[in-house]
Protein 1
Amino acid sequence: MASHFKYKKVLVFGLGILGGGVSVTNWLLKQGAKVTVTDLKTANELGQSLAKLIGPVKLRLGGHSKKDVDENGIIVVNPDVSINNEFIQYAFERGKEVTNEAMIFFQNFGRPIIGITGTRGKTTTTAWTEYFLSSMFRSAMAGNSTAHPFLSVLEKKDELEIAVAEVPSFHLELVESSDLPAGRQVAPHIAVITNISQDHLNRHGTMQEYAKVKASWLKHQDETQHCVLNADDEWVYFLLSQAVCPRPWYFSAQRLRPGLNGVWHSKNTVWLRNGRSEKEIFVLDDAALSLGEHNVSNLMAAALAAHLAGVPWKNIQEKIKSLPQVPFRQEIVFANERLKVINDTTATSPEGAIQALKRFGGSGTVLITGGTDRQLDFSRWAEVLKKNIQPGNVVFLEGSATDKMLAVLDDWPAAAPVCKTLQECLEVALKFSGKYGKSVVLFSPASKSFEKFKNEFDRGEQFNALVRKFCQ
C-alpha cells in the first residue's frame, strides 16, 4: 500500500475546513509521500485545518496554479472540487494520476467491500448492512462521514474481514471519467444503488449525467461480484444500460417481475427469489414497519447485501429486532407524552424531505424547512406537503431554496414570516405545536445549508442544541 505513494510528489487539491482534506494529507504523510497542499482559501481561513497536519507540507494557498500540477505526479482531489475544474482537466491533459480518498481506499483495502451509493438512504443502508455483518465478521463502515474516514479505516484493514463503504457521487466522478489501468480499477464486491432521484444538478448538470456517475462502479465488476438494485426505481434500466452487472439482484416493495432475483415484501413478510425458487425468509415486526416505506426499502437492500456477503437470514432477522437509529436521518431527538421532535437535517433534497412528510405528516405536525438551492424542482414536494401538513403549519428558514419553495406553494399559508435563524424557527414551531394535544415538530429542510451553516451536519448539531435548550 505505502509503496505506491512513498517518495512520490503528491498534490492535495483542496484542504478545506471540514476535516476530509486533513485526513487525506496526514495519511499521505504517513505513507512517505512528499505532499503539497493547494486551496483557494488563505492560511488565516484554514488555520484550524493547518494546525491538525502532522508533518511538513508545501502550502500553495489563496489560489491554484498549473505549475503546482506540473510539479507533482499524483493529484488527490477533494470531493468538493469538480473534475471539470480547469486545473483538474489540465492534470488529465498532462497525464497525471488523478485520484481521491475513496479510490485510494478501494484500490488498497485488499478485502471484500460492499459499496453503497444512491440519492437517498445511503447512510442508513450502510449502517444497517454493517450492523448485520457484525454478527458474522470483523467489519467496519467507511466513507462520507467524519466518524469513519476512508483512510482511517484503511489504516486498520489488518483487523478487518470486510468493509461497507458509503460513496457519494462526488467520489465516483473519477471512476466515470477515467480509463483506469488494470489493478487500479474500482469495483466493489457487492455494489448497492439505493435509488436515483433529482439531486446535485448544480454539479452534474443533468439527471442522465448524474445517473451515469452512480452507475460507474458497475463497469469493472467481474462474474464473481454482485450488484443490488432498486426494482421500483424508474432509473434502474438506465443504470443497467450504462454498465453490465454480471450478477444483478433486486429489492422491491412489491412482488418482483418474472426473471428478477432478489427480495420483496408483501405486508409484513419478506420473500426471496433465486432462480425458480421462492421462499419466505423473515417477518417484519411493527417496529420495523413503522420506520416508513423508504426505510423498509433500505432495510431490504441492507439485508440482501449482507446475505450475499455470507450472513444467514436467521442472523439478519434477529438483528432487525434492534436496528440502530442513524443520527440526523429522521432522528427522534426529543419525545414525551405530548411532543415529538424529529431531526431530518440530511434531507437535503425535495425527494428526501418527501419521505419524512409521508412518515410524520398529520394534523398535529409542524414542519421547519428551507435552505440553500441547488437547481432542484420543488413541485412534487409542494404537492406532498399540502397533503400531509395543515395550512399554516410550516415554518421557513430563509435561503435561496426557500424563495423557490414559497413561489411553488403560491398563496398556501405559512405559520409565520420567513425566519432568519434556526432558533427563531424552532420557537415558532413549538408555539404552534402547543395548540395540539399531541404534536410533532419535523425539521426536514429539503435543501442544503451553506448559506448559514458549514454543512448539513453542523445544521443538525445546532438544531439538537436548540432542542436541548427549549424542550428539556
Protein 2
Amino acid sequence: MSVKHSFKQHFEWLDGYSTSVLSDDLIASVIVSILLVPQCLAYALLAGLPPQLGIYVSIFPLIAYALLGSSRQLSVGPTAVISLMTAACIATLPEETRLVSAALLAFMTGIMLMIAGLLRGGFLMNFVSRPVVSAYITGAALLIIISQIKHIFGISASGTTALGLVTSFSSNLPNAKPIAMIVGISACVILFLVNRYMAFALVKTGVKAKLAKLISKLTPIAVIFVYIGISSSFGLYKNYDLSIVGMVPGGLPPFAVPTLSFGAMEGLLMSAAVIAIVAFVDSTSTAQEFAARNRTKLDTNRELLGLGASNFVAGMTGGYPINGSMSRTAVNVSAGGRTPMVNIFTALFMALTALYLTPLLKALPLAVLAALIIVACLSLLDFKNIWRTWVYSRADGMTAMATFLSVLMFGVQWGVLIGVILAMALHIRQTLRPHIAEVGRFPGTEHYRDASRFIVETNEQVKTLRIDESLYYANARYLEERVSELISNSPEMRDLVLMCTAVSRIDASALSSLHEINKRLKMLNIDLHFSDMQSRVKERLFRSNLLDELSGEIFLSQHDAMEALRPEPDWSQFSDHIDIH
C-alpha cells in the first residue's frame, strides 16, 4: 500500500467535511470539555498526582490520538481505572520521584503500544477474555470507591488493596471532619440522584430523550460549581479546615523527555506492560462498540498506534498514562460529535482552561471530587455480568470471580495479571481435552448427533467420533486416548469414522498422531475413514503421505460414510440415552 493511499485512507473522514459537520464537532467538543475539566482534576487526585497533571494529559495527547487513532468518536484522556493503576505503581516510590515516575510510566506505555501497533499486534486483543475484563473493571471500580471514602470523611488513608485501605481508614476514622462529611455525603447523594433519575424526570416533562440524557450528563458540572461557590463564600477551607484543591498552576505543559535511568525503567517495566494491556483492551472495546453503532470500521492496529502516541506525548509533557473513556465517548456521541476533530477542539478548550480558568477551581472541595469519582465508578460495577457468566459457564465464572477478588486482595496490577493467566490457562485446558463425541444418526434424518445426549441410531461395526476442535500438538495425544478407549469398548468395530466438521487445522504433531492411529487400527483389522473434512485441511493432508497409507476413505459427508460402510440396510440398535433437550 502506497504512503499516499494509506494517508488518504487514514483521513477519509475529511472527505465531505462540511460546515455542518464542523458545527456538530465544535458543539460536542465544548460539551465534552465541560465534562472533562472536573474529571481530569478528580482522576489526577485519584492517581496521587497534582491536579494540573490531569489538565496536561487532556491537551497534546488528544491531538496525537486524533491524528493517528482509528476511532472517529473515542474520547481519550484520564480515566478512573488507569489513574488507579498509576497510583498503585507510584505509591511505594519516594514522593520526590513520583512525578517523574508517572511521566516515565506514560512514556514507556506509549512506546510499548506503538511497537505493538507497528508489529500489527491488534490481534492480541482476542486473547483477553471479556469476562476477565468485565470482572477486572468491576473490582477496580470497587477499589476506587473504597479509596475515595477517605476524602468524604476528610481523613487520610493509604493502601493498594481493599483490606489495606479499610484498615488504614478505620484507624483514622476518629479524626473525621464533620464539614467534609456534610459536603461529601450531600454531593454523593445529589450526584447519584442526578445520574440515576434526572434524565427520566426530564423525559416525563416532555424533553426529548437524547437531550434529557445530555443534560443529565452535564448537570454535575453545575453542581460542582455550586459547591465551589459555597466553599468560597463561606470560607470553608479557612474557617472549617475543609480540604480543597487549592491553587492550580496555570499555563501549558512543558515538553521534556522523562529521565531515562535504567533502574527506573526496569522498576516500571511490568507496570507499564500491564497498563498498556488494560488501556488497549478498555479503549478498543469502547471504540468497537460505538464503531458498530455508526457502521464504521475500526482498525485495532491503528488504535495501538493512536493510543501509544497519546501516551508517549503524555509522558513528554510530564503527565501520566491515559486511555479511552466510555462515559465521555457516550457524551460525545450524544452531543453529535462525528469526527476526530472533536478531540482536537477539546484539546484547544482544555488549553484555554489551563491558561485562563484554573483560578476558578481553587476552592473546589476534595470531598466533591471524591463524590464525582464514586458516582462515576458506580456505573462501572457490573456484578450481574459476573453472575451471568457464572450461570452460563462455571469455568468462566470462576475465572471472573478470581479476577474480581484478586483485584481487591492484591491490587489492580496483580489482579489483571492473575485474570489473564487464568483465562489463558482455561483456554489451554479446554484445547488440551477437546470435546470428542461418539455420534449416531438422528432417526429418520441424515443428521448425526452426540449419542450421550440424544436418542440416535448406532451400529456396533461402524463407529464415529466427532472432533469438535482443531487438532494440534497439545490435544493430539488426547485423540489417541479416545480412540483407544473406543476400541476397548467396541469389540465388534470394523470401521472408525473421524467426523471433522469443526477441524480447521491439523498441525504436524496431530498428523503424526493420525499416522499412529491408522497404524494401530490396521493391526486390529479396523479401517480408518474421515468425513465432513474442510477443503483446506484436506489439501494439507494431500501434501503428506497419510492418505497413501490410509486404510479407509475420505467421505464428503457423514451420511455418505454411513451409507457406504453399514454392513446391512437395517439400523436396529439404539443408544439407551435420554434426550435432555
Protein 3
Amino acid sequence: MSDNHFFGLGRRKSSTARVRLSSGKGQFIINDKSATDYFAGSQQLASELEKPFSALELNVSEFDISVKVNGGGHSSQVDAIKLGLSKALSELNGDFKATLRRAELLGRDPRERERKKAGLRSARKKRQFTKR
C-alpha cells in the first residue's frame, strides 16, 4: 500500500462516522483524541473497533486511522466507526469485501428512533385509560 488514503462512511442510529485509513504506525485517532481516551469509560467499546481487522487477520498497527464522528451515544458511534472502517478496508482491497460481509460487518443496521406522535406522550406511550 502506498501513501494513499482510503475513506469510508458509516452510520448507525443518529451517529455518522467519516473514516480515513492510511498506512502508518498504528495511530487510532477519533475526534482528535486517541481511541482509548475517547472511549475511556469502556474498554469493551474500544476493543470492538478492532473487529474488522481481526476478521481479515490484519494487524491494526500497520494502519493510521483518523475518524470524525458525531451524533448519538458511544455505542452507536462505535457501530458507525466499525461500518466506516469495513468500507474503507473493502476499498483498500476488493477481496476483503466478501470476508467482511460474511462477518456481518458491511451491513447497516436500519433501526432508527421512532418519532413522537401527536396526542401521545412519546412514540407509543399513551395516557392512562380510565374506565369510569
